[in-house]
Write a structure and sequence with these properties.
about 325 residues, alpha+beta, 13-stranded mixed β-sheet, three-stranded mixed β-sheet, 8 helices, about 35% strand
Amino acid sequence: MAKDTQTIQQFKKFLAARREHDIEAQIAEAERIVRSIEGVDCRKAFSQVKKRIQKTHSRIPFLNILTRVAAILFVPLLIISVLVFYKQGVWHGKEQFATQKIANPSGIRSEIGLPDGTKVWLNAESSIEYNVPFGLKKRDVKLTGEAFFEVQKDEQKPFQVKSGKVTVTVLGTCFNCSAFSEDNAIEVVLAEGKVKLNTNGSETNKEFILKPGQRAVVDKTTDQTNISSGNIEKYIGWHEGKLIFDECPLQEVARRLERWFGIEVEIADPEIGDYKISTTFENESLRQILIMLELASPIKTGIIPARVDKTRQIQTKERVIITGKN
């Protein structure tokens, strides 16, 4: 009993000391325990524990002590569990448990934070996919549609955006990638830093290095890549809520309005389809934009409200009809 009393006193001193530890000290303790675990002979330890359990000494005083120990040691034990699980996942190469997909419907844009600290502005009718956990060995993202990336720099793990035959590789930079399935080309516009563009899978399999202010257009049919320099604001301004049209044909304006607002736009007069529009809108409503387009262009617009199709049990989109003024 004297030995048990002495042991209990030692536990009490240990608990009093543990209460004064901050979270950093507990983490450091957990790391030391993890390192010591790696050198433990598990079979020998189990045998010793089994022998002790078989002894008939009273254990009642220790139950209360062990309960208090469990509560105080919860944080380091939890940390140990996470560290061991993480290390096992890395050591055995089991880095992919699932695929995360984020998609925006028509009319919706979103800002996304990836686990590595990278920011992504995802346009309407667009989606990205990546492996979970993300960034243990590589940082690969699959893009459909359009997104603006502000990549967290990590020289050991290049960030890759894949879309069709095109792969964009970066270390840390800001760039825009547009790869809508219905478009004839894939566009990459570099705002800051440097990116490597690879047309892998094509006959040419060429590699290009882009500098800030450059725009690369990869033709989906011919795999030809055209690189140009100039004002890139009209290509990347959308992620800041701007709709910028610079000598943009009315047909393209209609397509971008459809994505932006989740509507349908019909150009009823084919003769005005190639009319060029040059203007900038920032956070205006659809009706405000249509009014300004009518004032600055030889067009008229009409709106057909959305309705519920009782036959198909769906809600139709709001429609905009564009005609010439004459």
